[in-house]
Amino acid sequence: MFSLEQLVSFVAVAEELHYGRAAERLSMTQPPLSRRIQLLERELGVELFDRTHRAVRMTPAGRVFLAEARKILRSAQEATLYARRAKKGEAGVVSLGFTATAAYSSLERVIAVANAEVPGVDLVLRELVTAAQVEELLAGGIDLGLIRPPVAGADVVTLPLWRERLLAALPSAHPLARRKKNPDVRDFDGEPFIMYSPSEGRYFHDLVVAVFRSARVLPEYTQYPCQVHTVLALVKAELGVALVPAAAAVLRFEGVVLRPVDGVENRPVELELMWRRSNDNPALGALLAAVGNQVRRARQSTVD
């Protein structure tokens, strides 16, 4: 098999059509250059240059091979650059897990940061609940997760990203939706309520339970779905009211009114990034640095 060194020599002679000039261009003498071309022709089994004339001319086979040689050299150069960029984290692949609610707004932010700051990094997206993300992370199935806290593990690192408030999701004909002032958390006492599943929707289940326990409120739980969009669908069907993250507003369910709730301010919905400390994927490090900078800037602007 011919070498890249032989291809470089061939292209130089083909472009200069003069062994002396080609040798000078390659910073070498003419005899070893001629020897390289001869070895290349022997490897290919064809003559690339017509040696019957005083001037150097290419054979038909040489002209065809020139186009292919240039493609090979270009590919080799691109592969080299890609490998160097991958080492720096400027290129590569990051597998990112995310929850369904994260997809409403937070996932878009992470993708926007990746596209702007590390455009050479490709994201492979997988929708998984938090528990499944932890399993996949520890097994090496994903590099990064958008999860609901808390998550623990000796090799697991988390970065708090964003907080959002809880909103009341109300059927549009419900009295709480029709009055002017915001509902209070105590208005849900005895109210038919769409609660989250304690297993598949554990984070939101535990959060809402904590809200009601703190306010000494006991709604009448009617259904236990696990996804926010299902909660909104059941609210629309007038099976009860609910508490949902503010990001749910992007779903725009007709017949459902979202209102701020007094008394839940100290119970925000939290989202975190999660990764393994031992993960040596350079692209992951570059993406984490970009997202971390964005989070710090956002927090600083809030303080200012």
In short:
By secondary structure, the chain is an alpha/beta fold.
Topology:
Layout: H1 4-16, H2 19-25, H3 30-44, E1 49-50, E2 57-58, H4 60-88, E3 92-98, H5 106-117, E4 121-127, H6 130-139, E5 144-147, E6 156-164, E7 166-171, H7 175-178, E8 192-194, H8 202-215, E9 220-223, H9 228-236, E10 242-245, E11 256-260, E12 269-276, H10 282-303
Parallel strand pairs: 3-4, 3-5, 8-9
Antiparallel strand pairs: 1-2, 5-12, 6-12, 7-10, 7-11
Helix pairs in contact: 1-2, 1-3, 1-4, 5-10
Low-confidence stretches: none
- The secondary-structure element order is HHHEEHEHEHEEEHEHEHEEEH
Largest sheet descriptor: 5 strands, mixed
Mean pLDDT: 90
Query: What separation lies between the terminal Cα atoms?
Result: 64 Å
- Strand order within the widest sheet? 4-3-5-12-6
Give the helix tally: 10
Q: Mind telling me the C-alpha Rg?
A: 32 Å
Backbone shape: rod-shaped
**Structural class per helix/strand content?**
alpha/beta
Strand elements, count? 12
Q: Give the DSSP E fraction (strand runs of 2 or more residues).
A: 15-25%
Q: Helicity range of the residues?
A: 40-55%
Written account of the structure:
The chain is an alpha/beta fold. The protein is built from ten helices and twelve strands. A hairpin with a 6-residue loop joins β1 and β2. The N and C termini lie far apart (64 Å). The strands form four sheets. A five-stranded mixed beta sheet has the order 4-3-5-12-6, with helices on both faces. Strands 10-7-11 form a three-stranded antiparallel beta sheet. A two-stranded antiparallel sheet has the order 1-2.
